């Protein structure tokens, strides 16, 4: 038993390095996708202090809209542009109808409002597009679909899907763009002010409404990108919504307001759960992927409650 | 109960500095990361006195109180509480051994009524366990009523009968401060730490609060340590004053001595070095 | 007019500290209990009892449980569903091991198992607050769900992976299993719910309830006043999980007859959380109102097309119900973030001064 836990997995890693590399790659890709979802959370949290539970369903919704439009005969690129338009309308609507009347409410109320939003979007999405999983229009969007196999060692083989590589590249580009947006622009500074204190920000003349519409739109764009990438790997379906909860442990590791934190947190969770599942999961019957991420976050929290990049919290009275 | 007590009318058998020792801090230092909040401070508090801690903003006054009731743990120094020497206090210990306090920014339980807030001060003195609480009728109810009587006495003393059932979040600031004092009094403390009890009050409210503090001191015999910026109040109320500046002690003595101290004058008025 | 407290003088602290200090409230409660125990059983049909009242009561109890933790102690939990599941599986195993013991007793005992599990997952709450704590409870949710699926012993290695409730009697009346009549189940569920609600209300108005609220409102001040944070929070976790566990056990024993791990999924956690928030954080009465809203509203929505003779598919109705519930949640949060309990208070206040509001 002890051998199975402490020795055997490492022996396997050493003896079959190609498999280990493949696992790492899988972990990397999963991590990138978690990071993308977490990024959507971070954007909205930074700008409004709202923990947006609806990010998961926004990913599904964006993906479904794109696929649904294409199914109805809209060319792929036009569908993409229209979907961006839909996300903009959604962002404006959310700001107008949900966020604006709830300024200055306690966090838990705002959190609940986004869960209410989740319910609404689930109903709305299923009503329009139906509940069945749909295939993502990967090729039509000009995204690569093939795969490359790298020979490794004597008879080893590591297979990389092109779409995964594309996902990684797009994720990195988006993170870079967002980092610039947050740190170098006037709107970015306003965003950080709003995150600190709604009323104080209002009092120095920052328009909350405009800021929130912008962030929700940005989060919608991130959701669309996530939806395309994730959809290309599996299918576009409402099951994705549960996976979005994984963003929570990612955020715990990386901190709720840190963009690089979201990326690194996502990667740690991605690597951690794939390795744990494939090397240790079998010992307890498998399927530990569903909760392992939360346990990582939990253990982490006990030792470093402020997150990877947070400063030590000094409580004042 | 409501007779106005002035300092002069109090019997004062011995000067404050000769009374029995209640609490002493020796060479206490506290820092956060690289920032030194308190450097090597020693002073004592004697039974029955009103001890003022003054100093400019950021001098480390609140940190000092936090050290005394165990919310911050100093890196160096010792605290002697009723003859027992220890490295640091723990909040629970401090509370159960009779140290109560009020806070600079009112720290009331906002969702609860005035009555419940003051009742919460009795928590340590109530003991009926969970199963009696479930039943309510009988021991739990009797205990609750017994403590309710004590709390009503405090409510009478502070003249806040009218707001008994009002959630404290809705009260004006001055009354909140008063409720907070009531909550601390409900603990029947031996030492009462008051962190700026009169901040943000108008003259009338300050006079009321001063009267309450003196009454508490003389009627219940409670020792009081208070932080206050209003020098008039400090000089009138306190028996002895300790002055902090940039985390260091610069003076300690009776109000008259402190007033005449050159270092204190420099700290408050600024001095060119 | 008729809701007046004028002329009712409280002459003792006992009277002032009663659960319902105003006479009209006492009468109102009496009427509600009379309706619940006498009128509904006499008049309601089986559908109403089995699909409306029983689930409503089960959810109310679960909402009271979560309210203890989130509404009174201020600790956000997203693991309610799993804690309910622990109660259900514990009760199931207990009836398998002790088939002759009264099933109601076993259901009440099963709560202790979820209380223990709840306290374990409450341990991190000493260091973790707010949203961060939500992650701990999510860990509980997904980990326990995984246990319900993977640990065959818990469901007696059934091929279906579900737990099926055996038939059990009390005083010669079948109260659990498929043959039990809705009426018998209704009485069991109603009695347990009312009893626990009453006991919890007692705890909440005393020293322990106050210590929870102290932690919720200002944990630092509470600590400096001699409240031990860990003990207090763990107690809230344990009591909350006990109540949720009993609700979970009742859910499968007296309502569903059979349950799968997915019955206790995160969806259930959210449902209960909605009930608590909409009903009003920190209000036992609100838990009932919230449960009524979240459970009964979709039933009504589903019934509307039939009544209007409109022909739309069942699925469409389901989706529309989702949308309406989501929209109404947002609507109520905007209108009254403190929930129905506050609306009820405001209404009572208005009634007191009616018809001369100034």
From TrEMBL, chain A:
User: Membrane-spanning regions, if any?
Assistant: 20-43, 50-70, 76-94, 106-129, 159-182, 211-230, 250-271, 278-303
The protein's matches in InterPro entries, at most eight in alphabetical order, are given as: ABC_transp_permease (IPR001851), BCAA_transport_permease (IPR052157)
Question: Is Nucleus tagged as a keyword?
Answer: no
Superkingdom, natural source: Bacteria
Keywords on record: Amino-acid transport, Cell membrane, Membrane, Transmembrane, Transmembrane helix, Transport
Task: Please give a single GO biological process term from the UniProt record.
Answer: amino acid transport
Q: Offer one Pfam family short name for this entry.
A: BPD_transp_2
Location of this chain's protein in the cell: Cell membrane
- What molecular function does GO assign, one term? transmembrane transporter activity
Topology with regard to the membrane?
Multi-pass membrane protein
Q: Name one GO cellular component term.
A: plasma membrane
- Tell me the protein family, please: Belongs to the binding-protein-dependent transport system permease family. LivHM subfamily.
The name under which this protein is listed is: Branched-chain amino acid ABC transporter permease
UniProtKB/TrEMBL annotation, chain B:
Q: Does the keyword ATP-binding apply?
A: yes
Ranges where the ABC transporter domain occurs: 23-271
Instruction: Keyword check for Nucleotide-binding, yes or no.
Output: yes
Query: Which stretch is the leader sequence?
Result: none
What keywords were assigned to this record? ATP-binding, Nucleotide-binding, Transport
What SMART domains does the entry give?
A: AAA (SM00382)
SUPFAM superfamilies reported in the protein's UniProt record: P-loop containing nucleoside triphosphate hydrolases (SSF52540)
Q: Which GO terms describe its cellular component?
A: plasma membrane
Q: Name one Pfam family in it.
A: BCA_ABC_TP_C
Q: What GO molecular functions are on record for this protein? A: ATP binding; ATP hydrolysis activity
- PANTHER family recorded: ABC TRANSPORTER ATP-BINDING PROTEIN, CONSERVED COMPONENT OF ABC TRANSPORTER FOR NATURAL AMINO ACIDS-RELATED
> What name has this protein been given in UniProt?
ABC transporter ATP-binding protein
Identify the species of origin: Roseibium aquae
Automatic annotation (TrEMBL), chain C:
Q: Source organism's superkingdom?
A: Bacteria
Record keywords: Cell membrane, Membrane, Transmembrane, Transmembrane helix
Membrane topology of this protein: Multi-pass membrane protein
Where does this protein chiefly localize? membrane
Q: Where in the cell is it found?
A: Cell membrane
One MF term in the entry's GO annotations: branched-chain amino acid transmembrane transporter activity
Q: Which Pfam families match?
A: BPD_transp_2 (PF02653)
Q: What is this protein called?
A: Branched-chain amino acid ABC transporter permease
What is the organism of origin for this protein?
Roseibium aquae
């Amino acid at each position: 038993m002890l051998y199975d836990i402490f020795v055997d997995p490492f022996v396997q890693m050493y003896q079959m390095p190609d498999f280990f590399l493949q696992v790492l790659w899988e972990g990397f890709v999963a991590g990138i996708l978690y990071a993308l979802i977490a990024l959507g959370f971070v954007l909205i949290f930074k700008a409004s202090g709202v923990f947006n539970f609806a990010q998961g369903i926004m990913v599904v919704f964006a993906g479904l809209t794109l696929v649904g439009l294409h199914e109805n005969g809209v060319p792929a690129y036009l569908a993409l542009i229209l979907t961006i338009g839909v996300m903009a309308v959604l962002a404006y609507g959310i700001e107008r109808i949900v966020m604006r009347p709830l300024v200055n409410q306690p966090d838990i109320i705002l959190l609940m409002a986004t869960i209410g939003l989740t319910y609404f979007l689930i109903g709305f999405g299923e009503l329009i597009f139906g509940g069945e999983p749909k295939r993502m229009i990967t090729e039509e969007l000009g995204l690569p679909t093939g795969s490359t196999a790298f020979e490794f060692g004597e008879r080893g083989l590591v297979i990389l899907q092109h779409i995964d590589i594309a996902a990684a590249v797009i994720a990195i580009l988006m993170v870079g763009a967002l980092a610039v947006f947050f740190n170098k622009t006037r709107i970015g500074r306003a965003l950080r002010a709003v995150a600190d204190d709604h009323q104080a920000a209002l009092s120095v003349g920052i328009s909350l409404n405009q800021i929130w519409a912008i962030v929700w739109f940005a989060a919608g764009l991130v959701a669309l990108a996530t939806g395309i990438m994730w959809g290309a790997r599996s299918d576009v379906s409402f099951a994705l919504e549960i996976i979005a909860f994984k963003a929570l442990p990612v955020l715990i590791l990386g901190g709720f307001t840190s963009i690089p934190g979201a990326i690194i947190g996502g990667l740690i969770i991605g690597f951690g759960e794939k390795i744990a599942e494939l090397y240790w999961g079998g010992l307890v019957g498998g399927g530990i992927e569903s909760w392992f991420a939360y346990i990582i976050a939990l253990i982490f929290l006990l030792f470093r409650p402020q997150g990877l990049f947070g400063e030590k919290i000094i409580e004042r009275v | 109960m409501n007779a106005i007590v002035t300092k002069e009318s109090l019997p004062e058998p011995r000067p404050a500095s000769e009374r029995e020792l209640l609490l002493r801090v020796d060479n206490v230092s506290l820092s956060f990361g690289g920032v030194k909040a308190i450097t090597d401070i020693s002073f004592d508090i004697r039974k029955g006195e009103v001890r003022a801690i003054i100093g400019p903003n950021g001098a480390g006054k609140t940190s000092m109180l936090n050290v005394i009731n165990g919310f911050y743990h100093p890196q160096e120094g010792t605290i002697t509480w009723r003859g027992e020497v220890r490295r640091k206090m723990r909040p629970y210990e401090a509370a159960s051994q009779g140290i109560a306090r009020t806070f600079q920014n009112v720290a009331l339980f906002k969702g609860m009524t005035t009555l419940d807030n003051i009742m919460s001060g009795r928590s340590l003195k109530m003991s009926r366990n969970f199963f009696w609480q479930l039943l309510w009728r009988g021991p739990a109810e009797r205990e609750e009523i017994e403590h309710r009587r004590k709390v009503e006495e405090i409510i009478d003393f502070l003249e806040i009968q009218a707001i008994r059932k009002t959630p404290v979040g809705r009260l004006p600031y001055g009354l909140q401060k008063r409720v907070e004092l009531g909550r601390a009094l409900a603990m029947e403390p031996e030492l009462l730490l008051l962190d700026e009890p009169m901040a943000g009050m108008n003259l009338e409210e300050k006079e009321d609060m001063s009267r309450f503090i003196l009454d508490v001191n003389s009627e219940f015999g409670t020792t009081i340590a208070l932080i206050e910026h209003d020098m008039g109040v400090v000089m009138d109320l306190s028996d002895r004053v300790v002055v902090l500046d940039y985390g260091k002690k610069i003076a300690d003595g009776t109000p008259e001595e402190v007033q005449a101290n050159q270092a204190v004058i420099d700290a408050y008025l600024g001095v060119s070095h | 007019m008729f809701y007046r407290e004028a002329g009712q003088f409280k002459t003792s602290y006992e009277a002032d500290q009663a659960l319902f200090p105003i006479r009209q409230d006492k009468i109102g409660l009496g009427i509600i209990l009379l309706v619940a125990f006498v009128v509904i059983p006499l008049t309601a049909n089986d559908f109403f009892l089995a699909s409306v009242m029983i689930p409503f009561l089960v959810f109310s109890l679960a909402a009271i449980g979560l309210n203890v933790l989130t509404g009174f102690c201020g600790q956000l939990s997203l693991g309610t569903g799993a804690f309910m599941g622990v109660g259900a599986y514990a009760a199931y195993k207990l009836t398998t091991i002790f088939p002759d013991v009264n099933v109601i007793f076993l259901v009440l005992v099963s709560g202790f198992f979820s209380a223990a599990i709840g306290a374990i997952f409450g341990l991190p709450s000493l260091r973790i607050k707010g949203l961060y704590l939500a992650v701990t409870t999510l860990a509980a949710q997904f980990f326990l769900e995984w246990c319900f699926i993977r640990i065959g012993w818990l469901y007696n290695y059934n091929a279906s992976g579900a737990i099926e409730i055996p038939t059990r009697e009390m005083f010669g009346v079948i109260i659990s299993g498929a043959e039990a009549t809705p009426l018998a189940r209704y009485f069991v569920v109603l009695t347990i719910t009312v009893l626990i609600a009453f006991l919890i209300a007692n705890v909440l108005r005393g020293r322990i309830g106050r210590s929870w609220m102290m932690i919720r409102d200002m944990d630092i001040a509470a600590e400096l006043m001699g409240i031990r944070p860990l003990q207090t929070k763990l107690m809230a976790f344990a009591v909350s999980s006990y109540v949720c566990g009993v609700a979970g056990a009742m859910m499968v024993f007296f309502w569903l007859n059979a349950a799968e791990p997915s019955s206790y999924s995160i969806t259930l956690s959210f449902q209960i959380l909605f009930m608590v928030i909409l009903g009003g954080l920190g209000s036992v009465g609100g838990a009932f109102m919230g449960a009524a809203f979240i459970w009964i509203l979709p039933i009504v929505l589903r019934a509307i097309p039939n009544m209007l003779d409109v022909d739309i598919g069942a699925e469409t109705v389901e989706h529309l119900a989702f949308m309406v519930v989501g929209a109404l949640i947002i609507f109520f949060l905007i209108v009254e973030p403190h929930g129905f309990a506050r609306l009820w208070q405001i209404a009572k206040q208005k009634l007191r001064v009616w018809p001369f509001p100034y």
